[in-house]
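anyone seen this seq b4? input:
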Amino acid sequence: NSKERNIGAYATKKPLKLFDRIIRASSNVGDTVLDMFAGSGTTQHAVNLLNKYDNGSRKCIMVTNNEISLEEDKKLTKLGFKKGDPEWEELGIAKYVNWPRTLCSINGVDINGKPLKGDYLVKDAVGNVITMSQGFNCNVKYFKCDWKGREVIADA
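predicted toks r here
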């Protein structure tokens, strides 16, 4: 995905195969997988791939903030923007990386609507190679919660 980038000193995308192996070893076909630090959405991607592989019905709950890189933070702050402003939120990891990656992998297309190239190097439940352009037979629901500072929460 051309939108993936570094957040601070860490690459945002983790190896899909690693997450696939972790989820495969620690879940059953009907389980719910919780990722409290969803970042780029690798866990959701791996859950969808594993469901396709073993005909599972796992669900995935992803929680992430919409952090931006330190560079972008400094640049936007200098321009007078702050967290919550549309210019700030558009560059956050949830909006800029996680959500597009989730939709693209489910739909089997890139951000321009063109079919994804390649395959996942695994086979589905009946032995067919899973191509990226197939996408996944699942759905996703996106909830956005506004950020609240400590002072607002303390007053509640």
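The longest helix spans residues 93-107. Strands lie at 6-7, 10-11, 32-35, 59-62, 119-123, 129-131. kinda curious what u guys think
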